[in-house]
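user: Kindly work through both lines:
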Amino acid sequence: MRGVKDIIEPVKEELSDFETHFENALKSNVPLLDKVTHYIVKRKGKQMRPMFVFLTSKLLGEINVTTYNAASLVELLHTATLVHDDVVDDANERRGFFSVNALWKNKIAVLVGDYMLSKILLLSLEKENTDLLQIVARSVKEMSEGELLQIEKSRSLDITEEEYFEVIRKKTASLISTCCEAGAISVKAFDDREKMRNFGEKVGLAFQIKDDIFDYGTPEKIGKPTGIDIREQKMTLPLIYTLKNGPKKVQKELKRIVKNYNEDAKKIKRATDLVIEHGGIEYSYQQMNKYAQEAKGILENYPDCEAKRSLIGLVDYTIMREN
C-alpha cells in the first residue's frame, strides 16, 4: 500500500498552498473566533477531503483558483460537522488533542461551527460559485438526514442492511462524493461530474465499513474491540449481518446485550465475539472490498497519469488504513 506522502505527491504544492488559503477563509474580526479557528487549523488531520478535490481536478484538468475555493468549502463543512459532533457526543478529544468544546465549552463550539457553515454561503456567493454551493448544501442536508435516520433506527435495533447503506451513503459517503464532484466542477469537467460523484460515494461507503470493522479491533487485533459502537447502540454492518443471519439464539443474545448491557465490558466482549464467530466481520470485508473495486473500476477509462494512480492509492489507503 502506498503511504499518504506518496499519494499526495502530484498535488503536494497545492495542498501546502491550501493551508494558507483555508486559514485566510476562516479569518474574522473577532479575536476569540480567530484563536479557536487557528487552534483547529493547526491540529488538522490528513486532509483527505482536500486531497480528493485536488486529485480529481488534476485528473480532469488544470487546478485553478476555483479548485482552491472548492477545497475550502468542503473542508469548512467537514470541520464544522466535527466541531458540532464533539458537542453532541460530549467528546473531550479529537485526534489526540482537546476538542473545541473541552477548551471553550459547548456554546462557543456550536457558534464556531455555525460560523464555518456561514462562511460556506458567503464564500460561494462572493466567488459566484453557485454550482459548488448547491452540491455542498446537498451534502449538509444528506449528512443531517443520515445522522437522524441512524438515531431513529438505533432505538429499535431493527435497521435493515438496505437502510444501513442509506444511512452511511448520506452520513459519510456524501461528503467524499461532494469532494470529487466539486473537483470536476472546478475544472469545468461537467461531463465527468456524475462519474466522480459516484466514485467518491463508493470510496465513502468503503471508508465507513472500514470504520465499522475497527470497532472489532484492527486486522492484527480482531477480538480486542473498542466496543464504542455497541456502547452507543450504533447498528453497524457486522452487527446487522449477524442479527439477520446468525442462529436465532445468537440473534436474541446480541439484541439483549446491545439493548440492556451496552455498558458492561464483559458483555460487549461477548457480543463482538459472537459477531466475529458468525461471519459479521468477514462479510463486512467482502462488502468493503466490493465498493473499493467498483470505485477503481470507474477510473479505468481515464488515461494513466500521476493523479489517477494517486486516486487509486487513496482507495487502497481507505480500506487498508489502521486508524
About this structure: The first strand starts at residue 93 and ends at 94. Strands lie at 93-94, 97-98. The radius of gyration is 20 Å. The chain has 15 helices and two strands.
